[in-house]
Amino acid sequence: MSLSDRLLLARLRERDEEAFSHIVKLYGDRVFNLVFRFVGNRSEAEDIAQEVFVTVFKSIETFRAESKFSTWLLRIAANHAKNRIKYLSRRPGVGAAEADEEDIALNQQRSVPAHMVAPDAMMEAAELGTLLEAAIAKLDEDQRLLILLRDVEELAYEEICEITGLPEGTVKSRLHRARITLKALLEAHTR
Q1: What's phi and psi for 175, nearest 5 deg?
Q2: CA angle at residue 146 from 141 to 147, to 5 degrees?
Q3: pLDDT digit string, tens, across residues 120-163
């Protein structure tokens, strides 16, 4: 961890609001994107992201710096998202992780690379992205989390193990099965 990161975290431990704002600015999009892709609903994801940062502010003393701060933060985000899905699944008439298609489309618009000029290429990329987001949303929550952490967030296996609490071999085998399921979902849609 760099000196500036350690100083920022020390200021956060002292309840410095400017440090907190800086942490939110640095990691806000990353936390929101992970949570949004996990729960599939923009308003739920916004609520969860806020809860994540409140939790970080309240429990920063528990961060022992044995891992990267971002790993600790994403673990909190993943746990909050899982808890919200469980909560929603117990409420009658509310789907646990029903992806709002409008939310998926809005997220994909942000994800389309700016360097693509041809409109047909942009449209094809957006459609593929929407299909992929919808297929990820259909995975069970454990598979979805692993796909998001490894293939979307591009985290190392070591970080994924810290976030999920699973051994590396288990992460790799479950990720392999999740990718097979994801491939089957995409193939079923293209038929």
Answers
A1: -65, -40
A2: 95
A3: 666 666 777 788 888 898 999 999 999 999 998 999 999 999 99
